[in-house]
Protein: Sugar ABC transporter permease
Amino acid sequence: MENKKVMGKLVSYLLNIVLVFIVVLPLLFSITSSFRPHEDIFKYISPITWKTFIPTDITFSAYKDIFTESGFGRIFFNTFFVGIVTVALGLLVNSMAAFAFSVFSFRGKKIVFFIVLLTFMVPFEVIAVPLYKVVSSLGFIDSYSALIIPVVANGLVIFLYKQFFDDLPLSIFESARMDGASWWRIYYGIVLPLSKPVTITAGLLIFVGQWESFLWPLLATHSDQYRVIQVAMSTFSQEHATIWNQLFAASNLTIVVPAILLLFLQKYFVNGIANTGVKE
Structure:
C-alpha cells in the first residue's frame, strides 16, 4: 500500500514537472529571443541546445525599437488609460446595478437579471457588428469613448457583486434605514466598504479584459492616436515578414502588467471568487 502511494506521488510529480516545462519553455524562448538580433532568432532552434534558450549575443535593440519606431510609449498610455477609466466606471455602474438587483423588488426583476446573465454567455463576435453600428451612430468611432463606454456594463461583474450582496445580513439594511440612512448612504457608506474582495476581483477582471482586448479596439479605432497594445502587436506581422525580436519584446512587456497585478492581488482575487459562488 505504501509503495503504491509513493509511486502515485512520483507519477504526479513527474507529470507536474512535464507540464511546467511545457508552459515555461515557450515563455523562456520568447524572453531570450527578445534579446537576440533578428537574424539569430531561429538560428539555434534545430537542434535544440542550451543556446536555444540562452542568447550568446545580447542586445536591447528590440526593446528600444518598439518605443522609438513603433510608438509603444503612446500605446502603453492608451491601454493603461482605457483600462483604468473602464475599471473606475465599471465598478461604479455594475456595483450599483447589482445593489439594485439584490436589495430592491420591482416588476420584471428576474427577467432583466436573466438578460444580464445572457450578456456574458454570448460570444462578443456575435454582437460586434451591431455594436459597431450603434457606436458609429453615436459618433464615438476612433475615440476613447468607443473603447470605454461599450464595455463599462459587465454582466459577469454584476453577477459577482449580486452574489456577494445577497449574502449580507438584512439586519444591516434594516438598522441603517431605521437610523434614517438613505439607500445611497447605505450603498457607499456600508455596502461598498464590506465588498473589498469582490471589488478587487471585479477590477482585475475588467482591467485584464481591456488589456487583452483585440477585436473591439481593432474595429472601433483606426488611427495610431488611440491604438492599444493588442492591436499594436499585430503590426509586427507584415505582408512578407515578421519582426520576431520586436514581437517577442512587445509580448513580454504585455504580460508583465497583468502578471504583477495577479501576483500581488491573487489572495483577494481567490477570496472574491470563492465568496461569490452560487449558494444553495
About this structure: The CA atoms of residues 176 and 218 lie 47 Å apart.
